[in-house]
Amino acid sequence: MTVHHALVLNLHQPPNNLQDLLAHQTWEAQEILFALDRIPRSLWGHEQHARVHLSLSGTLLETLSDPAFQQQVYGIVDCGALLWHFQNQSLFDILGTGYYHPVLPLIPEADRREHLQRWLGIAHHLLWRPRFQGFWPPEMGFSMELIPLLQASGYRYVLVDSEHIEPVTPMSWEEMRYRPHIARYGDAEITVIVRDRELSDAQESGMDLGWFQSEVAERTKWCDFPPLVTTCTDGENGGWFRNVTEGANFWSVFYRPLLEQVHAGISNIVPTFIHEYLDTYGVHSEVKVRTGAWNTGWHHGRDFTQWTGSEYQRKVLAECGRISQFVHDARWFAGEHGMTEGAHTDAIATALNALLRAETSCHFYWGEAWVPRAEADLAISRAALNEIGINTDLANEPVTQINSDAADTEEVNTSEE
After folding, report:
1. Are 160 and 191 in contact (CB under 8 A)?
2. Closest by Cα among 324, 287, 298 to 398
3. Which of 83, 235, 320, 333 makes a 20 to 30 Å CA pair with 271?
């Protein structure tokens, strides 16, 4: 029996993180850049069999495509060439995601749409895909209410963690893990691809090919269908992926030996693109997905405790929601009054950019250590709104005046329009 293996790698760096590391922790920045550059280099000559799904956050794409950053790291990694290699559709299928890598269920609905649209904008430009079929929820943070947005954004399937799957259609353990499913929310639906948590944990920490083959054989031995085994991890974090020594990292110890066995015809585990599996075998069942994320080094992913475990984290996330209301109400007002340029639109754009950046998952991932970064972005957002007369200090009565060249000064209640 052929087992289809979908390898998924998440690649994300927070805004300005690589620049900061280059200045203060140069070797760590170089390790990350080498890990990124190693991905296509490890696959050259294996185009016939290699199949890798990549999720690249908008902030990482922004950094890699920035001419100043490209010049800064030239001689370490050629970022332009790296982006060009990622365009190779024989080797890579690119998954959509959120621009600033937010935990989507934790941020306001209007902001989710902004993150998705902005990512599509930069990805279409840099990666030359007419369509991105799969969606990678940052931190695998998923809730069923995301389904209409994902469907409206053109996505065919979404990756979710095996911990959170609940069958609607009766099915075996093997079917639940190793078959695609449909999930529905109202009139919207999307295909769900299940990440095998335990195999993914092994992929993250280091595994040899023989162990993986034996474990997959045991897990799929009762399958009476072609199983799709999906493993998902970060692709540039941890020593297993960052190790520069040949014979001591993921690509040289595990993935290239797998490709060599596939080429020799002696492996029943075959790399595949998820969309090709769906085209061939379709979807046969329905599930619900409990709200949650993937497991981290500290937590199992349920209830988003990694990002909401302290009062400080929850307070700043709530402030993101409060400022979001001001920003989007101000945008609505500007649109209704035909304001398309000038100081007020520039201020709203600044406020929105800072708000979305504040929602970066990393700001809340490291306990309370990085939460001040989110607060700093929110301060920028509030200051920009204050410049056009929006007093964000009035939490319950956000009545303000917006000055415009295109309209008379008007009083607006930005919380109830």
Report:
1. no
2. 324
3. 83
